[in-house]
Amino acid sequence: MSKRKLTIALAGNANVGKSVIFNHLTGLHQHIGNWPGKTVERAEGTLHFKGYTIDIIDLPGIYSLSTYSLEELVSRKYIVVERPDIVINVVDASVLERNLFFTLQLIELETPLIIALNQMDIAKKKGIEIETEKLEKLLSIPVLSTVAIKGVGISKLLEKAIEIVEKEEKPNPVEIKYGEEVESRIAKLTRMVEEIQFWYPPRYVAIKLLEGDEEISREVQRIAPKIISTAKELATEIEELHSHSCSTVITSERYEIAGCIAREAQKLVPPIKPPIEEKLHNLTTHKTLGYPIMVVLLLLVFYSIFAFGGYTSELLNDFFYNFESFFKGLFGTGVAGELVWGGIIEGIIAGITIALPYITPFYLILGILEDSGYLSRIAFLMDNIMHKIGLHGKAFIPMMLGYGCNVPGILGCRIIETEREKLLAAFVTTLVPCAARTVIILGLVGHYIGIQYALILYVIDLLIIFFLGRLAFKTLPGEPTALIIEMHDYKVPHLKTALKQTWFRVADFIKIALPLIVLGSLAIKLAEVLNLLEPIATVLSPITVMWLGLPAITGITLIFGVLRKELMLIMLATLLGTTNFALVLTPVEMIVFTLVAMFYIPCMATIAVLVNEFGWKKALFITAFEIVFAITIGGVVLRVLTLAV
Amino acid sequence: MERRTKFEGSELPLTALRNGETGIVTSIKAGRGECWGFKRRLMDMGLTPGAEVVVVKSAPFLGPLEVTVRGSRLALGRGMAERILVVRKKGCLREN
After folding, report:
1. Is B60 on the interface with A (CB under 8 A)?
2. Class of domain B2-88
3. How far is A479 from chain B (nearest CA, A)?
4. Alpha carbon A163 to chain centroid distance?
5. Quick count: other Cβ atoms within 10 Å of Cβ B52?
6. Which of A71, A469, A541, A593 could cross-link A545 (Cys pair, CB 3.0–4.6 Å)?
């Protein structure tokens, strides 16, 4: 039997249970990566069903195909250019109207479509019942009800998809008719578009041109500028008739159609009372109670990631160092042995002991928080404060996670919509003192000078974040930010989906970061083996000794700190020949050293994710900026403190 | 024009509504270039002219607004919410 191939794309709003369906379909045969050149996550998987090899693509959760965000652009391009055999539109029954607004756009794209009507249980709780057959009739698209959490209806979806593909029927969904004024102009424009070669359906192009879609306008402009000028004229006519912009008119009318279909298909029944979700929402967004609840929850998250991370990190470390003598025996203690163990193997160990213990629980908890709906409530509560540094509420989450480890913090910036804000949030996150830097702050300043001084350093850090955040906000070009986020009803997260997602994301991270960490580790080891460390320390001494007033050997620790910040303290002890730092460093020196350590460079793993998320140029810029900034502030503080003491 | 007279009362920003009040969206103030993307996003989320919006509450210290529109609950940054113009929807018992 010949293997037949099939590609299915999952599309739909955020939080409709799309990824749960994806996980049911693909099990462990999936891969999470990025869309080429984009920081948008791409989840792909394969399964075998009735003699077919089926590729499943989970498109990002979006509300429209208007290409406002990268996610929308990626999704539309995928559907039109790569042409999946069928698109399964996952629809949230509890917010039918808004979900249908998206469905209508898929219909306009003229792609073969099946609707998976999901979350009927939530709808029922809200007092909404939907007649599946009626919806199917109204849309002329197959509608199948699913309970994704329980896996109900999933195989029916596949059967239907195969049935449609085998029949090779052209999809014949309901015609979406706008008002007469709009419709006549769409028709006129469609006829013009039909004459040119373009990969989007002509009617779709016509509608999008009237809406002023930038991407499509740009491409049509190159082929047939005449069409663009006509579209502009027609759009102006509509604008004059309706006294609203043309895109507003079309969006409104599309929503009217969606609303009309929704009202026809749904029946309002008394809601099942009392909805505990509602009470939970009121409590967690309460103007006074909301904040203590958030603080306690976050501390709990924070603590558990730390506790788990710290414990596992040590365990793994011990485990790996058991092999030290084995490897050294194998490769000898000569230069080669040093390089293999100290360079490559220790690099891998560093990568694994940083990555696994902190990132794994982070991903899991973030996934659970997001899925349950709490993340959007945090954004709601924190929006006001975050606005002060030009970011909106959502950016609070990556920043907070940065206190554990900057790496997941930066990865967490993906939840922010625009590229500009993502970068801004990531930059701010690199300034947050992570666990490793906390070791230095507490171990040096906190232990030898006093805990209150350590706290002062934290406050200074917050001030610097605020100041640099504002500065970056003012200098980066682009639109100001605003929070627009859906606070969907609380729901119990699907643990299996969260676990699987965590696993695949961790694997993805290791693939990206590990090589860089190993490379960095090897370079430093090489410098050590070649006896370059002392000369480097001498080269750095104008900065370390003259400007920062620190012993010359701290230059070496600064180099090692790039690999792992907590190594700085260990190195310092080794190089100074004592763990009692009070004997060899003055309090001022300790403060300056700690300050520099806090800001001077993102560690190797952090640089790796910065490269992965934003490209080499931006990553190097942030790195270079922070080196200069840390050195400057260290020297200034030294002079201020010497004057004051 | 018919579309204008459909809404009674004067236009006010969404932020002027008290908690629990319903407004009908008339327009979103945003020119091309300036906040254009956000206007699109708001409309995609259902805040189109004619849509009913209920202001549920606002976060403390002039924080974002919690609103419900077309059956979904949204958090809207205050700056954005100020650009959404609405007319107040009168209750069923019309008093003058």
Report:
1. yes
2. mainly beta
3. 7
4. 36
5. 14
6. A541
Residues of B in contact with A384 (CB under 8 A): 59-64, 78
Alpha carbon B84 to its chain centroid, in Å, reads 5
Paired strand residues for B74: A486, B67
| Residue from A47, A41, A56, A50 nearest A9 by CA | A56
- For β-strands B52-58 and B65-69, DSSP reports them as antiparallel
- Which residues, in sequence order, are bridge partners of residue A116? A90, A144
Q: Among B8, B65, B62, B42, which Cα is nearest to A247's? A: B42
Query: Who's near A446: CB < 8 A, 6+ residues apart?
Result: A453, A454
A285 CB neighbours in chain B (<8 A) are 57, 59, 66
- DSSP state letters, A579-613: S-HHHHS-HHHHHHHHHHHHHS---HHHHHHHHHH
- Please give the average per-residue pLDDT across A133-157, as a whole number: 93
Interatomic CA distance for residues A338 and B13, integer angstroms:
69
Q: Write down the architecture of domain A180-268 according to CATH.
A: Orthogonal Bundle (1.10)
User: Would you say A586 and A628 are in contact if contact means Cβ atoms under 8 Å apart?
Assistant: no
Residue A285 has a pLDDT of 94
* B75 min Cα distance to partner chain A (Å): 5
Closest by CA to A375, choosing from A385, A387, A365, is A365
Burial B65-75 (b: 16+ CB within 10 A, else e): bbbbbbbbbbb
**What tokens appear for A450 in the block?**
């006093």
Task: Indicate where chain A has its CATH 3.40.50.300 domain(s).
Answer: 4-167
DSSP count for chain A of H helices, then E strands: 32, 10
Per-residue pLDDT, averaged over A205-210, amounts to 95
List pLDDT tens digits, range A16-63. 999 899 999 988 787 877 777 666 788 899 999 999 999 999 999 999
CA distance between the termini of chain A: 85
Sorted by sequence, the CB contacts under 8 Å of residue A582 that are 6+ apart come out as A448
Write down the domain spans for chain B. Answer: 2-88
A23: tokens are: 């996980």
Which residue from A177, A66, A127, A140 is spatially nearest to A489, judged by alpha carbons? A127
Interchain pair A486, B74: CB under 8 A: yes
- Type of residue at A329: G
**Topology of the domain comprising A4-167:** Rossmann fold (3.40.50)
A316 touches A353 (CB < 8 A): yes
- The Cα angle at residue A57 between residues A51 and A59, in degrees rounded to 5: 155
CB A90, CB A118: distance < 8 Å: yes
Encoding tokens for residue A238? 């509509």
How far is A644 from A35, CA to CA, in rounded Å?
54
The whole-chain average pLDDT of chain A stands at 87
Closest listed residue to residue B64, CA positions, set A429, A397, A386: A386
Q: Do A485 and B38 touch (CB under 8 A)?
A: no
- The residue written with tokens 């740009």 in the block is A218
The distance of B43 to chain A (nearest Cα, Å) reads 7
Which residues belong to CATH 1.10.287.1770 in chain A?
Answer: 180-268
Pairing relation of β-strands A86-92 and A113-118? parallel
> What integer is the mean pLDDT of A283-307?
89
Distance (Å, whole) CA B51 – CA B22: 10
From chain B, the residues in CB contact with A486 under 8 A are 45, 72-75
ipTM: 0.88
Residues of chain A found within 8 Å of residue B71, distances taken between Cβ atoms: 94-98
